[in-house]
């Protein structure tokens, strides 16, 4: 696999270990499913231990191959988590915007990661099930051309007061927390695919070059900034809200 | 010894024994037997082996069992007819069991000897060939007289259709012949037992009828006989098809024809016809073979039930499932919420679980189980397992099988910490390392974590790893042979894919290799082979062969040994994780304490709870402790976990208590603050803390029994102050403290370096009604608390910088100076308080005096009484009562009259303070003193406010310092735990404390506990320390003597006081008159004639100023510090 990167491919690729954490049934696996297969299953089996999937994400300058560890959410599985977030360079801490308790749990995870995971881990806080918030001003805005990172997501959330049907966690609250802790922040819907690819792209962008390990990572640094034009492709591809930004 | 018994057993297995060694043994003498026995025959917990005897089982020959081999062959040759099995016959309360597997319940049920059934079972499972007959399933037992030297029994079992006798083909119930090998006496005894059991068994027949009627085998065979009659037509009796799971309606997974289900059913029908069914089934080699090739769909549930033993659970209590559901219907729980989340996502691709019917079943089974085992509740993966079971079983069957899974087959897998899962992962890894070292090295090198792959295999029994049909085949064997199967399959998977796995260098490839392997399990293992037979072998068959042939060496014993080996590491990993998590989740308040401190508090908190729990348990079970321990050991043999009763309370093992009651809190404080140790564990009265701990402990002498209430740790003091602290920290008003409470409490005390907030904190502690005022009573109590807190080396608290060095450099005089300083500060404090106190509202006053007259209350408690009775609604009504009962130093204690007085007895020693405070005033200040004295007049209630209190504190340098640093630093947490030398310098009681402290500090919870238990009071005779101990006890004696005399004086006073009160209106006169006398410069020695001999003792300390009581305290302190000084000299 490592060799495939060396095969006259213009962009260097590096793999990033990413772990998903969060309360049970907030949609961790569904997010991954959406990202990897552009698919959604209403009744996804709970993850036992952890599931492992990979997906590539094309950035202008490099290709990031995500090695995604999707962990079980139930409280008692928490003691298994260290096994999975070991050496992770990125983490997606997911909560359910219709369940305030899940944000609390997410905060616990963030604290755990900040203290126990590898230093410099990129953490994204993700509020999932945005489709359940009825007045969803996001619906139209995800096709904005520059929607490729945290700031974009921020823009989308403006004006949202959490008056949506099932929404119980106001965007502001979570956003404020994320800012305080220096986390990337998104609200997504795995069901509709809204913002899902953005999360992963943002993480890919946020991974410091230096933390990319292996020969693939080193290659990435040399070719920095070589392919500005790739950016256009990337952004254009995301209009569908799913994952064209990331090749399979 | 072991070898010998082993040999004997082995011999018994192979040679036909002429004499039985095993006589009936009482189960309580060798309790481990019972567990082994139950595990072997999969019997419920209620069963114990009552009788056992070597025996030979003879079964009439049938064509279907012709191929029988193994243990049978040797004897088969000798006998002309039938199958013969030599083994052991066991009798329990409700079962008659026979097994060819060496049961090893001989004299010493040790690990080595038990391995004969926990060892290789050659596919027969631990129970081997034989039977497990519920006694109620035996219809008759006849004694045969065939051979003169043999004692033979013919057992006729109940086979459901009593009128089957008429049919020619079907034997009327099956008949077993059992020859007992033993002395006539032994045989007779066995038979007596059997007779008794059979009689009892009659009661269970109804249960059996119910349970059996739900078994498919009954239907299958009834069908069979009827079919013959009605010549294969639909003319069956209107017998209802028993519930054989959702598969009945929604189809069983897999292609029935491909699985050759019909053939399997036919074979089973033959087998069951000849060997009994459900309750009366006899296990012959064919039985095990039939299981190995995969069970037919409709019989699967029933055979699972039988081989796992859940059938017997159901038999015992057939209605448990429905009753549980009914009992808890409508109730809610966390588990139920969690279950609801997963109902729609349990085997969602199976049509049955897309229907309300299937989901309803799943919900009910999981819910019912969560109620019967609330400790486990619900764990993800249970939904998948139960969903799988429900395809083949009825709800009730699945319910009982689930409890067998959780309790016996997968111990600790689904517990709240999942320690069983983690442990077995560790075990699995070590087995991989052992059996496939090259692969293991590769995994380590490429940093692939094996458990990431294998954990779901174990947790959900391969159900969502392999295609369902294959997972069920694994389950077939798993229920028969036990947990080792999971390991064998796992190892075989790795072995088969070894080559490819060696090429995989990261988790991703590793996982995908296995994923694609699982997806191709139905393909040919040797697709290119010339040999068509070989080509027909599927990958799954290959897997089974590798698992059970190549890894036949992996036995239950291997697993148990490995579990025992890795248990501690795994548990302590979990514990440190739990600790980390819970500390982090303590909330914002906790941020005021350092991480180390939090860790320390956590350890200390749970160590105390754990120790107490364990102590209580051990004390409770002192009598049958040995038996318990023995039983625990036996469980360990099977599961690798020692018995629950020994390990309970370990955080990693699951839920443990998280709340601390007051006694535990005292013990907790005793490990953290020096002042919280009782002064004299040997002498009942507590000079300062005046609440005698004596009544608590019965005989709290120095030579306490090993299991004292406080274990080996030091006895904590019991002081009003501690009680107040407890109440203050108990913010949830539950009369118990959680770790959260304790941490928040400490954050308030220690988290702030601000003297003002410390002063307010202290003030609030004594402001019972929260009205911002502390009355006379409170003032006295505050001063008393200050004394209490300072009675051990306030010196080093006030100037912590040179605390320890001071002692070692012979700084004792300085120290005593400081103590004296402190004493005088406190007396000044009292004086000033009264000086600056505000009088209460006059009307209030009137009320009080009225009350006082009416109730005949004593002088000093009036204020409080009033407040408590009339105003104070907030004060916790629960606390005063215990304090009352635990308290009184002397029966004549005056406060016995005030059941509602919140802190009844603690102020005794201070009672005289009033007079003495005044007395200590220099003559020149008589006027002021008089004013103060006026304030003392009980008829003029007064109070101080926080500003006053603050002012008074700040007016005194020593007190100021105390509030600035002394108080909070008197709690020693991680940054400055009570060091052994420091504590020994101030008081020797802390010797034991030091040990405990160190232990608690070092080892986290687990080690702390062990260490704490070991670090007892240092036994005298241990060299220097022993001598030190003696010196200290001298000091204590002195202290005790002082206390005794004080008490006498006190009693005298009380008597006087009461006497005075009886004289109605006169009552205030004498005391105040006396006060005035004293103020006029009376000698200390003349303080009060009623004091008896106390003054003698007090005189030497008189020059220190302060009140009589203070002096007494001082004396006491000094005697203690004298002792310690001597100690120090010794050390030097």
A few lines on this structure:
The complex is a heterodimer of chains A (248) and B (1132). Chain A is an alpha/beta fold and 248 residues long. Chain A is built from 9 helices and 6 strands, in the order αβαββαβαβααβααα.
Enumerate how many helices of chain B there are, as a single number: 53
What amount of the residues of chain B lies in strands?
A: 5-15%
CATH superfamily of the domain at 2-238 in chain B, by name, is Pleckstrin-homology domain (PH domain)/Phosphotyrosine-binding domain (PTB)
CATH topology of the domain at 2-238 in chain B: PH-domain like
CATH class of chain A: Alpha Beta
Describe it:
The complex is a heterodimer of chains A (248) and B (1132). Helices cover 34% and strands 19% of the residues of chain A. Chain A is an alpha/beta fold and 248 residues long. Chain A has a single domain, classed as Rossmann fold. Chain A is globular. The two termini of chain A are 15 Å apart. Chain B has 1132 residues and is mainly alpha-helical. In chain B, helix 14 packs antiparallel against helix 15, helix 27 packs across helix 29 and helix 36 runs antiparallel to helix 39. The longest helix of chain B has 40 residues. Chain B is elongated and about 105 Å long. The two termini of chain B are 54 Å apart. Chains A and B meet through strand 2, helix 3 and helix 4 of A and helix 14, helix 20, helix 24 and helix 27 of B.
